[in-house]
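Memo to structure team: turn this sequence into structure tokens by end of day. - J.P.
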Amino acid sequence: MKFSPSCDGVYSVVGTTYTFKDARGKCPGDSEPEYDPSTGWKRWDYKERNEAKSTPLQSGKYEFMADVSIQADKFPHAAWYSVFQIHNGARGGHPPSILAVREGRWHVGNHDTWVPSKEDFALKVAIEIKENFITVDYYVDEEYLCSSRMYELAQPFIKFGLYRMNEFCSATQIYKNVRVN
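Reply from structure team:
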């Protein structure tokens, strides 16, 4: 599977290692505040992203795997940051599935877990697409973390890299041994 920059991201690739560094303001709207459409409350002062995206996924089963290392002076390095997404290309709203860190805990979709996140871990994501139904199971260090399931009409694809809101310090997210079976 091939990966290419999403939203003019700039990252390095050496073999199967992808390195993503700070990228504040590189995508349209990233330097502007984001507000909740239903309440009008400010969600974030700004966001930044530097990500890779795959070619579109067809119906079938996939397994994304990588050894992830997050390097920063503080952990967590932002109020919220993404580790992996199944995206649909829509602007605004939530992608069909997302694994993120919020307040130092794993966050899936719109739901927080009570499981503390890690700076270094083996990530495995089992993806199954049947017609328009997407099932995603997340594993961290070989242990099942959680799942997401969603009905989606748009063509899904994989996104991974540095995507965060209100950073606390500079950060680098490294994905080694990236592979999709």
